[in-house]
Amino acid sequence: MDEKTQGAMIGAAIGCAAGAVLAQVTSNDPGTACAAGAVVGGLIGYQRARSHEIEEAQKAAQATTTVEGAKAAPVQTDVVQVTDKETGKTESVKAFKSVSVDIPLSQVNTADGREAMRKLNDYARKVATDRGETVEMTIAMPPDKAGRSKVAAQQTREAAGKGAVVRSVVTDPRTPSNVQRVTIEVKNPARIEV
Description:
Elements lengths: L2 H24 L3 H34 L7 E2 L3 E8 L6 E15 L6 H21 L2 E8 L12 E7 L2 E9 L7 E7 L5 E3 L1
Parallel strand pairs: 2-8, 4-6
Antiparallel strand pairs: 1-3, 2-3, 3-7, 4-7, 5-6
């Protein structure tokens, strides 16, 4: 079971328990109150799991800025419409989409540069494991002054729990001439039921 489902289930259990306790205090039906609390708790659990994922992305990006000249872009998010299966209630939830870090080419092979890449690789594996999905990790290099590729395009796939990390090395003319841009990205559904 992936982390987001566990978060929703934990939230549902907490909501159920809170609803049942409230029902006892107010002399209402504990079963009905449990069901109502579980619905709210399931949505809250899913929201908390997504918020935690966004915070982890921010921390992973910031951890790499110890490299001289490295810059982390703001974390990108998608809005997912989350619907409760029981009630049909729908909420909009922000979910992690991607994070990018520019590491100066002069720092890539330094101890700090290698440590930053290790942290980014670890983060990509964690996201793939937690989600049980494929995570894309792209390392974009700028073309040389004549516009030619500096590196041969390559792709590897690594299993991570029930998910996988697909790493691609590409030449991208949008990448500044003095950096290597590392982007970690996931695909979010537009809608999901919990």
